[in-house]
Design goal:
Elements lengths: L3 H14 L2 H16 L7 H15 L9 H19 L3 H22 L6 H15 L4 H8 L3 H10 L2 H5 L5 H12 L1
Helix pairs in contact: 1-2, 1-3, 1-4, 2-3, 3-5, 3-6, 4-5, 6-7, 6-8
């Protein structure tokens, strides 16, 4: 994936196929573009891919509403955004914001959770950026996640266990002593 338009076309393909695994992989690839290439425009597709993976896989979002109608509307906007992305990035991002608002609407109607799906996506993206080396403040600034919620979320994850970067208290004290001596 080289360009924003390619990312949006890939997003549309995965949404159309209802490919949850593909959506999650795309979310991570887009987030890498944010963290490594410093291309902030890829944050929105990363969040949308994560949110679509969640809503496609959960039946409760589709109670009393048509998944096909919702998905078709989102696909039309994604297609239009992909056409604009390389020539008018701000206009493409406005269309992505419209899709995000529609996704939020699914949570409002459902009413199960305190945070809407896009707030959850921002929290997930911020925690991933933090794990990739962003400072807490930078991760919050980029994603718009709530800092207090992010700290709670990070504390509950097994991020350090998965990356193998956790240190025991003894290792931390040894490092500290070597710095101070």
């Amino acid at each position: 994936m080289q360009s924003l338009s390619e990312a949006l076309l890939e997003l549309a393909d995965y949404v159309e196929e209802k490919d949850v695994h593909g959506l999650r992989k795309l979310s991570n690839k887009c987030l890498e573009k944010v963290s490594i290439d410093q291309h902030a425009a890829f944050l929105k597709p990363a969040m949308l891919a994560y949110a679509f993976a969640k809503v496609i896989s959960k039946a409760h979002y589709w109670k009393d509403r048509s998944q096909a109608v919702f998905v078709n509307s989102a696909l039309a906007k994604l297609s239009k955004a992909a056409k604009l992305a390389d020539t008018d990035e701000p206009a493409a991002l406005v269309l992505l914001d419209e899709i995000a608002e529609a996704l939020k609407g699914l949570d409002v109607k459902d009413g199960r959770f305190v945070r809407d799906i896009m707030q959850k996506a921002a929290l997930k993206m911020a925690s991933t950026l933090y794990a990739q080396g962003f400072s807490l403040d930078s991760a919050v600034a980029v994603t718009g996640a709530d800092k207090r919620e992010l700290v709670k979320y990070i504390g509950k994850t097994l991020m350090f266990d998965r990356t193998g970067s956790a240190k025991t208290m003894e290792e931390r004290l040894k490092s500290l002593r070597s710095i101070l001596s």
